[in-house]
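In response to reviewer comment 3 from the previous cycle, which asked for concrete evidence that the modeling workflow produces usable outputs, we include below a single protein chain processed end to end. The sequence was submitted unchanged, and the resulting structure tokens are shown without manual editing.
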Amino acid sequence: MTNSIPAPALEKLQQPAQSINNDEIDLREVARTLGRHSKLIAGVTATMVLLSGFNALSQKPVWEGQFQIVLEDKDSGQRGLFKALQANSLFSQFTGNTGTSRSSLKTEVKILTSPSVLMPVYQFVKKQKQQQGIDVEGFRLSDWVGNVKVDLQRGTSVLNISYQDTDKKLILPVIRLISKTYQDYSGRDRTRGISQSVSYLEKQISELRKESAKSMRSAQAFALDNGLPLEGSGSLSATGLMSSQMAQGNSLTGGATLGPSSIDSSRSAAQSKVNSLMQQLAAARAAGENTVYVAPQFEANIELYGELQQLQSQLEEKLALLKPNDQSIQALKRRISSRTAYINQQTIGLLEGQLNTAQAQLTSVTRPRDVVLKHRELMSKALRDEKTLAGLEGQLQVMQLEKARQTEPWELISTPTLLDNPVAPNKKKIVALGVLGGLVLGAGAALVVDRRRGLVFSKGELKKALPCPLLKQLNVADPSSWVEPIELLAAGTLANPGDGAIALIPVGTVPNGQLDQFGRTLQQAIGNRELKITTDLLQSRDCSHQLLLASPGGANRLQLEHLKMRLALQGKPVTGWVLLDKSQVVS
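The workflow returned the following structure tokens.
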């Protein structure tokens, strides 16, 4: 007769063995696993504690020195002229920006821990250790810099600086040298920047002085060649007082002027005077013998005016006493007409002389347009060079004064001090870490050992591995409590009207005492029915019921898989299984 494998059993058989290992982690089972291997965990933890304690005792004490420094110059609010130079993009690259913004402070902190700043301190420490007979072959700057810690106190520009070393006697000399190095560094960049700025200005002034003299000579030579006034013959001072000089004009009689518009001004003034004289000359000619043309600007006519006024007075007196046709009155009238004509002629002659002079002056300042424009261009360049030169000379004076001014270095707000107690090693912390590490390593080792042994302690994993339902969980610590559940099983699930035999199949290894106790109790419950305790499935297949008996850790996963496969091949239904465990929790 051929036994067929039931479909559910075949599906379970076809599932990979690893399926029972893909469950979620049960923390209670993990805790039970750790409890089962408590001796292993305790051993690993004790070993780690001993090792960490030995490590803490073998380490040399680490000493620390500290001081505080303000990352600002007391004189950072510099002179107004120097601030103006810093605002100038041309010189800001030399003088630097002394602002204390948060980003610049962080940059400064990074620079202070750089090898370029701490190199002298490193050389000193290396030399001291070498004198003590310590091998400094592997003493590297990059490793030593980690002993210097620079922290910016939050919300301030105060730096907390500390240095650590195993040599207590070396702490104070090194911390003092660090403070001196930082103070020297605080003024180093400022001095170097100002020196570079002074050198740059001196070079530019030397070149521009030559260029300014050349441009002024060109303008003056052009003026001489074209009969123009010599403009800009004086040079500007370093203080830049050129506005008043440029405002000075020149009279029509000649003289030096400053400013490219003086030629146009002279020409306009000369033309205006010519026009005025021509109008006066026309008016004097139109006056004739009857009216005197008064020209008070001429001192030569003052006496003639006086004589004319006397004659007019005499005429008025005679007209009051004599008739108009009197010979004496007619004679006075002729004398007055003659004197009037003479005064007008005298005035005309003087006006003509002034007109000729004014026309000559107009001719002297009148030049072709191209000549005037060229002269204006040359003078503008000469004056521009002079102004630039004066500005640079003023800036050079400011930088020289700033260079001569002494500045205070960064202020120490606490003296370098050595802490009374070493800061390392922290023995309690090392031992605590050893305990923690031992527990973690011990727990990990326990889980690995438990997993490699493959024994199944989890009720849930047994449920999934066995191809039948769990009927009952019995407490091995109290065998007397087994009687009632077993009798209920015998009268219920295991009842058989035909009085067929019952096969009790141990799963893996069940302690003999527990197996015997369960067998006796079950035999009493089933009475005269036969009870077969066997692991041979060929013997159990003829029984009316097959009952599996399991205990935690009694079988490994491979044994469970083999049992599952054999039961599937047998094709005989399994009634269920009973779990013997210390727990009294019923599933």
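The beta strands are 63-70, 148-152, 158-165, 412-418, 470-475, 502-506, 531-533, 545-550, 576-581. We consider this sufficient to address the reviewer's concern, and the full set will be provided in the supplementary archive.
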